[in-house]
Specification:
The complex is a heterodimer of chains A (about 500) and B (about 100).
Chain A lengths: L8 H10 L4 H19 L2 E4 L1 H16 L11 E5 L26 H8 L3 E6 L38 H8 L5 E6 L5 H7 L2 E4 L19 E6 L2 H11 L29 E5 L9 H16 L3 E5 L4 H19 L19 H12 L2 H14 L4 H22 L5 E5 L15 H5 L6 H5 L4 E8 L5 E8 L4 H15 L10
Parallel strand pairs in A: 2-3, 7-8, 7-9
Antiparallel strand pairs in A: 1-3, 4-6, 5-6, 5-10, 9-11, 10-11
Helix pairs in contact in A: 2-3, 5-6, 9-11, 9-12
Chain B lengths: L4 H10 L6 H18 L39 H5 L5 E2 L2 E2 L7
Antiparallel strand pairs in B: 1-2
Classes of the chains: A alpha/beta (about 500), B mainly alpha (about 100).
């Protein structure tokens, strides 16, 4: 029998529907992979094999009874541990929420279960989704299944959705949920040779997702290819009255309308993304990507996004400002950790709880956010950043008068080694330089694997689209995917 | 603009995070590094530019004033609300005494 864990979302869904294999067989296969890799990769915070089997059995029973099957029927997935899952610990990879067991289910995860998906477990991430390497997790970092050729240094899986990226790349799950605030789906996808899309802000409900920066946070799928992402995004997206910024729009049939023929489409190459001292392999892969899109029928045009350089500093004001407000809820009263030193009063309890429950990066961002929002500095920092954000969104608006999608690298380099950037928070932040602008403008953006660099590590290409135009992004992604022929796999060393 | 140790201690206290002397020692240069870097935003000409309030212009929706319109956010679930509390007594969240 074929190894079912080599199959992606579409192949599993179709195979289960046509009776080639059962959903239970699929779930058992992935459960075994999850268990076998946990010690080496640390991709999961908790595994929930029984949930995966339970969902699979329901799909098998529904099929036997001739009932209609959902979009994700029989597909077991990993759930980033930022989504509240009823009855299963939800931690945001923090000590603060260790042991927190929600009494409710996030909208996105509930939709996935309704669509017939099952849960393999809760995936590790950077603490409160703050990080680009997964090294800020309270539960230890995830290890990228990829290594440099000939080396055995442990590589970062990217972040914050590093458990998701590692799990999909290592075939521990055919797909996983991610969330993207400033690149947290796209950068880890690029680092592990998988595909991930952040849809337009508001496509997926934020209800039940642990909040980081609410004007930026957006959920999306991470999977092996573009088609699988399209299928899963359909299952995740949709209007939710419980999220005030949820888009009240029907969910398009992205999978059905996938089309890699780009005749009549224009692809913009942003001049400002070609930075001095750019990694040669990344630059080369970008050029190759432009050629592939030309081969697919598109016209390639140079565009300008003049405020690109200011996107990252604006992001590092806006995101921490929102985080400092959102994370004010962790006070040791209603849920999560409580530290109550001897003779402590209420204020002491807050301060002790937050000192103990938050990691260093989270504290750093809360302090920056508190500072830029404080009296006397608010206008100089926060208002200025929000104005720059308007200019960045306007840059894209003007650019999209000249092109339909934008092609850029996903990250400035391939995966770096664990520990390489932990001493310098700023150098870590710079990793999101190409990802953050689309986040600030709320645009759909995806990363697709484009090849390997000279060290044998995957590189990703990013496609950014107009507001609501996930289809255009997916189609261009498909055109790259078909031409990149990315079949490389990490050696199974774990 | 750079922050000194006293300012960082003040911010930490505003943010209700207690910090040891050693933590303050590392935090001061780290914050200054980041703040010096975001300083470059000052060079952007933003005259006549409105600060962004929403990436997708939307009107805030109103809903019917009905308590259990959505059971997930409705009422009557006191025990569920308290289920994850570090301390709950008599159907309330419990905190250290605040009134002498």
């Amino acid at each position: 029998m074929t190894d079912l864990t080599q199959l992606g979302v579409k192949a599993i869904r179709d195979g289960v529907a046509s009776g080639d294999f059962t959903a239970r067989e699929v779930a058992e296969g992935f459960n075994a992979n999850v268990a076998a890799a946990q010690g080496a990769l640390n991709a999961f915070i908790v595994a929930t094999p029984e949930r995966a089997l339970e969902a699979a059995d329901k799909v098998d029973a529904d099929r036997a009874a001739g009932k209609p099957l959902g979009k994700m029927a029989g597909v077991p997935i990993g759930m980033k541990d930022l989504f509240a899952t009823r009855g299963v610990q939800t931690t945001a990879a923090s000590h603060m929420l260790e042991g927190f067991t929600p009494e409710y289910e996030s909208t996105v995860s509930a939709k996935l279960w309704e669509a017939g998906a099952g849960m393999l477990g809760k995936l590790n991430l950077d603490q409160f989704a703050m990080g680009s390497s997964n090294e800020t997790s309270h539960f230890g970092n995830v290890v990228n299944p990829w290594r440099r050729s000939g080396g055995n240094a442990q590589m970062a899986p990217g972040g914050s959705s590093g458990g998701s990226s590692a799990a999909v790349a290592a075939r521990l799950a055919p797909a996983a949920t991610g969330t993207d605030t400033g690149g947290s789906i796209r950068q880890p996808a690029a680092f592990t040779g998988i595909t991930g899309i952040k849809p337009t802000y508001g496509r997926c409900s934020r209800w039940g997702i642990v909040a980081f920066a609410s004007s930026l946070d957006q959920a999306g799928p991470m999977a092996r290819d573009v088609t699988d992402c399209a299928i899963m995004l359909e299952a995740m997206a949709g209007f939710d009255p419980k999220d005030s910024t949820s888009l009240d729009l029907p969910v398009p049939e992205w999978e059905k309308h996938l089309d890699a023929d780009l005749k009549g489409k224009r692809v913009g190459i942003p001049r400002e993304y070609r930075m001095d001292g750019m990694d040669a392999d990344v630059a080369e892969s970008w050029d190759r990507g432009a050629q592939w899109l030309k081969d697919a029928g598109a016209e390639v045009v140079e565009i300008s996004l003049p405020h690109t350089k200011y996107a990252l500093p604006a992001y590092y004001i806006i995101a921490p400002a929102e985080a400092s407000s959102n994370l004010a809820r962790y006070d040791g009263v209603r849920y999560g950790l409580r530290e109550l030193p001897e003779k402590a009063n209420l204020q002491d309890m807050y301060a002790a709880t937050r000192a103990e429950g938050f990691g260093a990066e989270v504290k750093r961002r809360i302090l920056i956010g508190t500072y830029v929002l404080s009296a006397g500095f608010y206008d100089a920092y926060y208002t200025q950043a929000q104005k720059v954000r308007t200019l960045i969104a306007r840059d894209f608006e003007l650019a999209f008068a000249q092109c339909d999608v934008i092609l850029a690298p996903t990250a400035p380099t391939a995966a770096f080694a664990l520990g390489e950037k932990t001493d310098d928070p700023l150098s870590m932040y710079l990793n999101d330089v190409f990802a953050v602008p689309a986040s600030l403008a709320g645009l759909p953006a995806m990363s697709v694997p484009a090849g390997l660099n000279r060290d044998g590590l995957p590189l990703g290409l990013q496609i950014i689209g107009r507001t609501f135009d996930e289809q255009g992004v997916l189609n261009a992604g498909l055109a790259i995917e078909q031409r990149a022929g990315f079949t490389a796999r990490p050696d199974t060393w774990w | 603009m750079s922050v000194d140790r006293k300012t960082v201690a003040k911010i930490a206290s505003l943010a209700r995070i207690s910090m040891s002397e050693e933590e303050l020692d590392t935090m001061v240069p780290e914050l200054n590094n980041i703040l010096n870097w975001v300083e470059q935003l000052g060079e952007v000409d933003v005259s006549g530019v409105e600060p962004m309030t929403a990436v997708i212009p939307q009107r805030l929706r109103l809903r019917e004033d009905e308590m259990n319109a959505d059971p997930l956010t409705g009422g009557g679930v006191r025990d569920k609300v308290l289920a994850n509390a570090p301390a709950a007594e008599h159907g309330f969240f419990a905190v250290p005494k605040v009134i002498e």
